[in-house]
Amino acid sequence: MLKKINSKYITVLIHIFVWALLFILPHLFISSDSRNIQPGFFPSSWFIITNAYHVGLFYLNAFVLYPLFFNRRKWWIFVILIAGILAASYYLKLFFTKTYYPEVSVDLWAHRVLFFPAFAFLLVSTIYRSITDKVSRDKKKKEIFAEQLSVKLKFLRSQISPHFIFNVLNNLVSLARKKSEQLEPALIKLSDLMRYMLYESDEKKVSLRKEVEYLNNYINLQELRFGHDVAIKTNISIGEDGAGYTIEPMLLIPFVENAFKHGMSIDEPLIEINLGIERGRLEFDVKNKYDDTGKEGKDESSGIGLENVQSRLALLYSNEHALTIQKENNLFHVHLIIQLT
């Protein structure tokens, strides 16, 4: 709101400066003494009075005629009105000059001075209004696009939370059935995950360090659940270089979640997760073995995570990411590169 007010003040100041310059120029270059006026020329007082009239024409066209007729495709009415105003302006100024400045010799040059300034002001006014309208339309389009983007991102994030919570609760149910001593630390990890999801994931961007902590908490939770039943290899390090970068919240977790979801249905499950950053370039690798025989069951939520994150990457990092997903030799491999800011 403050930015909009400041923009209006700047526009008003620019208008005042231009018109002030216009009214000062006659005093600088034209004599104010009508007795020293050469034939065909006008005194500075004449220009000041007529310029005030021209300024009125400028705003009449910019804020009344152009919006009412030209923008509504009634261009022929607009052309007729402009032609009528030009003719009326010429005869009005001619009458004014002969009445109040009889010493001015109205020759060919004088007739040009009587006609063309009004034409110039109306032309500049039309160009000014067309440019401001275009700027306004472009700004409105950007605002609408930003609002649509925001709504879509909120929808995508809302998809993540229930889907993710559903899987985590399944993990806890498994621990409870086993009456595992790991249930309590698992609940603590879950509370950390929920805190991040509820209070920090609504931000447009979060620090990369927080996203990595969230990722580690999820991996630790899965390690508590599966224990030695799965070989989990992780190498997640952002170092000091990654401390100052931000990222879209909950952007990386769907890849890891997908690895655990589909990589645990084989006899010797293996999951590898690597994350590193150098000069703002984040590289993220997730690998998991999977069953390519088609025997693996799928629920209704299968695939939501990957489709979701691909949509978010396209919206937020359209030209700043590269995502490769490969399936080969019973190995599902995700490689993601993001240029962070």
Short description:
The protein is an alpha+beta fold and 341 residues long. It is built from 8 helices and 7 strands; from the N terminus they run H-H-H-H-H-E-H-E-E-H-E-E-H-E-E. Strands 2-4-5-7-6 form a 5-stranded mixed β-sheet, with helices on one face.
Describe this structure in words.
- The protein is α+β, with helices and mostly antiparallel strands.
- The chain folds into two domains: 139 residues, no CATH class; 160 residues, Heat Shock Protein 90 (2-Layer Sandwich), CATH 3.30.565.
- 62% of the residues lie in helices and 13% in strands.
- The chain has a five-stranded mixed sheet with strand order 2-4-5-7-6, with helices on one face.
- The longest helix is centred in the middle third of the chain and has 71 residues.
- The two termini are 26 Å apart.
- The mean pLDDT is 80.
Distance between the amino and carboxyl termini: 26 Å
What percent strand? 5-15%
The CATH superfamily name of the largest domain is: Histidine kinase-like ATPase, C-terminal domain
Secondary-structure element series: HHHHHEHEEHEEHEE
Draw up the topology in text.
Elements: H1 2-29, H2 44-70, H3 75-100, H4 108-178, H5 183-199, E1 206-207, H6 208-226, E2 231-236, E3 246-247, H7 253-263, E4 270-278, E5 281-289, H8 304-316, E6 321-328, E7 331-339
Parallel strand pairs: 2-4
Antiparallel strand pairs: 1-3, 4-5, 5-7, 6-7
Helix pairs in contact: 1-2, 2-3, 2-4, 3-4, 4-5, 4-8, 5-6, 6-7, 7-8
Characteristic key phrases:
341 residues, alpha+beta, Heat Shock Protein 90, 2 domains, five-stranded mixed sheet, two-stranded antiparallel sheet, 8 helices, 7 strands, 13% strand
